[in-house]
Amino acid sequence: MNIILLGAPGAGKGTQAAVICEKLNIPTISTGNIIREALKNGTEMGLKAKSYMDAGKLVPDEVVIGIVKERLAQDDCANGFILDGFPRTIPQAEALDAMGVVIDKVIDIEVADEVIVNRLSGRRVCEKCGRPYHLESLKPKAEGICDDCGGTLVQRKDDSIETVKARLDIYHNETEPLKDYYAKQNKLVVVEGQDTVEDTSKLVLAEVEA
Ligand code: AP5
Ligand code: MG
């Protein structure tokens, strides 16, 4: 199954991707995680993306489209994949269609802007695998350590209040129109993302299994 997770920054895309990944055993392709990894490794692409990412702005379409094209060509995507954070603009969605990639379902996780700011200020992510946790709502088994890979949990640079506000603006202007784009293709399903992580996971898995 080929799935896109849509939703505002902090809606829970990364969190729910981990749940689907465990259930279906298909990889998650998070453009945010791929760019952060490139940045950490000091690659040319990482350096190019840094100023955009730090300011909460979108990295240029051609850069992310190239990343996704390359990643989807790898063997582990043959039986399905979860796209987390891509597409983020209409040109990105069009590029995905032009690649001949068939998407089965687009799951839009809806969360109000007010809830987002609190979620992102308490977020911690694994430095190694990118899995998200939260200081209150989603604690790891051992403090500061990733349950999955043992990596150290850190705070993301773009999770400051000002940057989160900029990211939300961009989401409403550039990414939200994708709801209409995929509704027209009859692929969009909407789930309420404001309850607990477990409640949202139930709704998401019900859609995946429908
Ligand atoms: P990216 O890393 O994709 O960030 P984002 O879309 O802003 O989304 P987040 O990762 O912040 O949120 P999420 O929905 O994954 O929420 P999470 O599960 O962590 O992108 C970062 C940057 O990279 C962009 O700004 C841009 O510069 C660049 N980029 C990436 N893709 C791009 C693209 N396609 N085009 C251009 N540029 C691109 O959850 C958030 C927190 O809430 C966590 O702490 C979690 O534990 C907690 N939480 C989750 N669910 C619940 C719940 N139900 N109740 C309580 N707490 C919850
Ligand atoms: Mg994420």
Can you put this structure into words, describing what you see?
With 210 residues, the protein is of the alpha/beta class. The protein has a single domain, classed as Rossmann fold (3-Layer(aba) Sandwich), CATH 3.40.50.300. It contains 9 helices and 8 strands. It has helices at residues 13-24, 31-40, 44-54, 61-72, 90-98, 113-121, 161-175, 177-184, 197-209; strands at residues 2-7, 28-30, 81-84, 105-110, 123-126, 132-134, 153-154, 188-192. A hairpin with a 5-residue loop joins strand 5 and strand 6. Helix 2 crosses helix 3 and helix 4 (61-72) packs parallel to helix 5 (90-98). It is globular. It starts with a strand and ends with a helix. The mean pLDDT is 95. BIS(adenosine)-5'-pentaphosphate binds at residues 7, 9-15, 31-32, 35, 52-53, 56-59, 64, 85-86, 88, 92, 119, 122-123, 132-134, 137-138, 158, 167, 193, 196-197, 200.
